[in-house]
Write a structure and sequence with these properties.
This protein is α/β, with parallel strands linked by helices and 396 residues long. Strand 4, helix 8 and strand 5 form a beta-alpha-beta unit. It contains 14 helices and twelve strands. Strands 1-7-6-5-4-2-3 form a seven-stranded mixed β-sheet, with helices on both faces. Strands 8-9-12-11-10 form a five-stranded mixed β-sheet. The radius of gyration is 22 Å and the shape is globular. Helix content is 37%, strand content 15%.
Length: 396
């Protein structure tokens, strides 16, 4: 397909048969474990094609998996993509593949909680040491933390709770100079941030979120910058038995078709709500990198082409964490739940639920994380306005 086509055009046409092919518009859903071949010689030939998109056994994927992998690789600008069963698996698989006993990893202090738990738990048992760094660190500051055995520099920009935006090009330059690979959780930046143009080696997506888009699929993706990294990742993922259900792949592929319009609508709605919240007397600051003057806005404006629908709110210190619980519980259109990127709005108090050890993420007032869905913006703002009244009246 012509590379000059726009984003939404690509989402509509990639990963399926062209208009001159006879058959249904969407690719078929293929389920299976055993793959039959006519001869032993052909079976051996297929098994020898390492990393190729050929049918050998169910865990090697099928046209259903490969169509999704090709779509995500095109969206992120990568070379190849591997689909796994969850967003967390998309984090842990490359860490297991690219780290070994005796290695050192640098991980930002604001990292996704389960990723931190994995680094501080299982990786410790496997002899890997992790240093947590301030996500807003400069290249010079990161260079001081690098060691001869630092093999992975992990990044997440912005952080999914406090939304610090990292200087990925500067971090990547230092990491590569020290011989380390750069892994990035790019879930917030899907489409809006092109990781491989900024020095990332491995991009991680919780495809559960914007790619699937309907809060009914668990799935993850790992996209890489070059074939050498792909070969290592593919071999390791297969050895770990990583596999995603073809049903979930098919649903995610279907979700991607409308992702362009969803992203645009949710970005616009989130910006409207963020601007409204910024001028509320209860609010100390809105942690949305797309807002002028917000933390990380300058780097966001330099490196990103847009923003997603997830952001944070810091309330003034006169309010307690318990009062924000009352605010969230009073909302009628916002569910209380983990995840984001779906069609529905969510609100979750985050104060007291974030682990930090490198001194980052210090706020005077309590925090709430907001995800804006596809509801009418006026309805969401009216709902928040009413719930803020409940928060102001809260006596504890």
């Amino acid at each position: 397909m012509t590379a000059n086509y726009g984003f939404r055009t690509k989402l509509s046409h990639l990963g399926r048969r062209g208009k001159h092919e006879h058959g249904f518009v969407n690719p078929p859903l293929l389920r299976g474990s055993t793959v039959l071949v006519p001869t032993v010689a052909q079976r051996k030939a297929l098994q020898a094609q390492r990393g190729a998109q050929v049918l050998t056994y169910g865990t090697g994927g099928s046209e259903t998996h490969w169509a999704l992998e090709d779509m995500i690789s095109a969206i992120e600008g990568g070379t190849r993509c591997y689909i796994v069963g969850t967003g967390l698996a998309a984090v842990t698989v490359p860490l297991l593949v690219f780290l070994k006993a005796g290695d050192h990893m640098l991980m930002p202090d604001h990292v996704y909680g389960p990723a931190r738990n994995f680094a501080s738990g299982m990786l410790v048992k496997y002899g890997v040491e992790t240093t947590y760094y301030d996500p807003c660190i400069s290249g010079e500051g990161l260079a001081k933390l690098m060691r001869p055995n630092t093999t992975v520099v992990y990044t997440e920009s912005p952080g999914s709770h406090t939304f610090e935006v990292q200087d990925i090009p500067a971090i990547a330059a230092v990491a590569h100079a020290g011989g380390a690979k750069v892994l990035m959780d790019n879930t917030w930046g899907i489409h809006h941030f092109q990781p491989f143009k900024h020095g990332v080696d491995v991009s991680i997506q919780a495809a559960t979120k914007y790619l699937a888009g309907h809060s009914d699929v668990l799935i993850g993706s790992i996209t890489v910058s070059n074939d050498e990294i792909w070969q290592e990742l593919h071999a390791g993922a297969r050895q770990l038995g990583q596999y995603a259900s073809p049903d979930d792949c098919w649903l995610t592929l279907r979700g991607i078709r409308t992702m362009g319009v969803r992203l645009a609508a949710q970005m616009d709605a989130a910006m409207q709500v963020a601007h409204w919240l910024r001028h509320r007397p209860e609010v100390a600051q809105v942690l949305h990198p797309g807002l002028p003057g917000a933390p990380g806005h300058d780097i966001w404006r330099r490196d990103f082409t847009g923003a997603c629908s997830l952001f944070g709110v810091e309330f003034k210190p006169t309010f307690t964490a318990e009062s924000t619980h009352a605010f969230v519980e009073a909302l009628e259109l916002f569910g209380i739940g983990a995840s984001w990127g779906g069609y529905e709005s969510l609100a979750v108090p985050t104060t007291g639920n974030i682990t930090r050890t490198a001194g980052s993420g210090q706020f005077a007032g309590p925090l709430v994380r907001i995800h804006i869905g596809l509801e009418d913006v006026d309805d969401l703002i009216a709902d928040m306005d009413r719930a803020l009244g409940v928060m102001r009246a809260f006596k504890g």
